[in-house]
Amino acid sequence: MKPGLRSIYNFEHNLQREGMFYFGPYEFNVPQELIGGSFAQAKKLVFAKKFSSSGLQRTFAEKAAVSGDWNVTALLTEHPALDEPSVLMPDNPWVNGGFDLSLILSLLTGACVALDKDSPPDFKLSPALPIVCDDFFAKGSKVDWTLLPAMQAAGGGDALYALSLARDSQEGVVKLAMGSAALDGLVSRWHSTSGENRYSPEVKDKIKFALQSFETNLTNAKVDELLIKDIMSRTNNLSSNSALSKLTAFLSMFEMYPKDAGKDVALRLKFFNVLRNSVAHTGVLRLSIAGQPDVTGRVAGAVAVLLQYICRVYIAKYLLGIVDAKIEETQQVVKKFFTTGKLFGNDIITEDYDAYRQRLIDHFEEHGNLDL
């Protein structure tokens, strides 16, 4: 490798020919020999239209999953910020600016991207779930690196690290637990500065007065003093919004949940929250939580994807100010799940993969599109 260049691994930049581009303060070079690497891919249906002597034909094929290789896919020009202390995780002395760059590239591409790590990771590579368009890097999309301190203050750095652990784990419970940790951190930081609190000082004073009366009544009823202390210690959080209320406000504010949600929509959010909390608090996915075990498995998989999307859309669009059509599309995927119960057109509760696959094929053959 030429002096002054560093290797970036597993970065799906989607350049189709040799070139260079800037991302934040960094210059990336993609020589011809690094074009077209082998990346992890999930099994998927590929639809196509072609003209023949008999007219327009609509075809489909199923592509097998690909495990992918750990290869250099771009070269990064040396920059002093790469070896400076991390902005996103300033309390961690073992990471630096290069780690920050890797986290942000991973945020946008949905894959495990690393700098100067020539040995493959000790986990199976996950297929990318990008939230930016294929030409995002090629067209030199701007990312303002001066926003990183504010992003860190909003919990973005810790959230991205948790999301990376969720992405790279093969265990569904870990995906849910770490995705939930990322979301909870972001919601808590946002709520603490948003002013979105229905408990005004006047309301808090009324609650405090009522609790004093409650404590007096317990004493008059001759309840054991230690029990009274135990009971009253649990009332400290009565003057703050519930976790579900905070999450609802967060998703509504950032346009991933309708502000005028009806009963069915609110129940979906509650169910989403119950499932992720059950894993976060117990470390176990109760297979009966959505009825039959196979249904619970589908719902859990959907929740794991949604946790990634919610956090990544919030960080990319609202903390980093990135403008991209696919971020908008991903944002609507989340909102549509809560409003319809469908993820990518799949009715998660009632429809298994085989039924969804066949419905997708039938719809394409009849209508020529995938707009389920």
How would you describe this structure to a colleague?
This protein is an alpha+beta fold and 372 residues long. It folds into 3 domains: 1-130, no CATH class; 144-194 and 244-340, no CATH class; 202-233. Helices cover 47% and strands 12% of the residues. A hairpin with a 2-residue loop joins strand 2 (19-23) and strand 3. Helix 3 packs antiparallel against helix 9. The longest helix has 27 residues, at 293-319. The chain is globular, with a radius of gyration of 24 Å.
Task: Note the topology.
Blueprint: E1 5-9, E2 19-23, E3 26-30, E4 44-52, E5 55-63, E6 72-77, H1 97-109, E7 114-115, H2 148-153, H3 156-168, H4 172-194, H5 201-220, H6 225-233, H7 243-253, H8 263-282, H9 293-319, H10 325-340, E8 342-343, E9 346-347, H11 353-367
Antiparallel strand pairs: 1-6, 1-7, 2-3, 3-6, 4-5, 8-9
> Helix/strand/pairing class, anyone?
alpha+beta
Apparent shape: globular
Strand residue percentage: 5-15%
User: What is the tally of beta strands?
Assistant: 9
Unreliable spans are none
**In total, how many domains does the architecture comprise?**
3
Proportion in helices? 40-55%
| Strand line-up of the largest beta sheet | 2-3-6-1-7
The averaged pLDDT comes out at: 87
Overall radius of gyration:
24 Å
Largest sheet: 5 strands, antiparallel
Distance between the termini: 48 Å
The H/E string reads EEEEEEHEHHHHHHHHHEEH
Number of helices: 11
Q: Any descriptors?
A:
372 residues, alpha+beta, 3 domains, five-stranded antiparallel β-sheet, two-stranded antiparallel ribbon, 12% strand
